[in-house]
Amino acid sequence: MNSYPGSLQGLVEHLMKLPGVGRKTASRLAFHIVRMPGEQAEDLAAAIIEVKSRLALCSFCQNLTEYELCPICSDTSRDSHKLCVVEYPADVAAIENSGAFKGRYFVLHGILAPMQGLGPDDLRLEKLRQIVVNEKISEVVLATNPTVEGNTTALFLSRFLRPLGAHISRPACGLPVGADLEYMDSVTIRKSLDGRGPL
Q1: What is the pLDDT of residues 144-186, one digit of tens each?
Q2: Does any domain span residue 156?
Q3: How far is Cα 9 from Cα 194, in angstroms, rounded to an integer?
Q4: What is the pLDDT at residue 42?
Q5: pLDDT score for 115
Q6: Measuring CA to CA, which of 51, 93, 187, 192 is 20 to 30 A from 41?
Q7: Which pLDDT does position 1 carry in this prediction?
Q8: Is 107 inside any structural domain?
Q9: What single string gives the DSSP state of each residue in 143-170?
């Protein structure tokens, strides 16, 4: 039997719906929220409501934005002929933080995952095809995650986009900087050796 009051239990249940948050973490967060001064809790609630009401999808890349075009798509200094395809908006932020890519993006908002009922119709492929053709994209970087579903999605997209004439590439997979070989899994080692280059 749960000893939490109903409203507190309800908050815990909602927090458990967040990715990576189990019952213990949700309980810890809920108790933290309860201990917050009333004004801070109201600010948190207001911030959640505001982000839900103000954010929309960029009309070009489908990234999150408060305007018709996101800041990346509005930046005329970027290489408009290179397009990086990612799974989710958080992936755009990760690549931008690296400073390694200066083109534009397209966010799929998912991957091919038949077990979860996600197929090609869920990935905004027609919009992607129009961008590659209309913007005369010379290179498409398929930066889906190196998971089974991510690799399957990248393979599907390469076959889908290849007839459009753009060069299709995929980020290299391999050993992270500072890693010890003895602790690496065999798939990572194999991919790093398969993708080896000259020194």
Answers
A1: 988 889 999 999 999 999 999 999 999 887 777 777 767 777 8
A2: yes
A3: 51
A4: 95
A5: 78
A6: 93
A7: 43
A8: yes
A9: ---SSHHHHHHHHHHHHHHGGGT-EEE-
Q: Which 3-state string (H, E, C) describes 76-99?
A: CCCCCCEEEEECCHHHHHHHHHHC
Q: Which helix (H) or strand (E) holds 50?
A: helix 38-54
Residue 143 lies in a domain: yes
CATH code of residue 182: 3.40.1360.10
Tokens of 99: 């400073």
Residue 99 in this model has a pLDDT that exceeds 60: yes
Contacts of 186 (CB under 8 A, 6+ apart): none
The first and second tokens of residue 183, run together, are 């602790």
d(CA 116, CA 123): 14
- φ, ψ of residue 157 to 5 degrees: the values are -65, -35
Q: What is the tally of structural domains in the chain?
A: 1
Query: Which residue range forms the structural domain that includes residue 185?
Result: 78-199
Flag whether pLDDT at 122 surpasses 50.
Answer: yes
Ordered DSSP codes for 100-115: ---SEEEE-SS--BGG
Consecutive H or E run containing 12: helix 6-15
Q: In this predicted model, which residue has the larger pLDDT, 30 or 192? A: 30
Indicate the residue type of 192.
S
SS3 of residue 127 by DSSP: helix
Structure tokens at 3: 């000893």
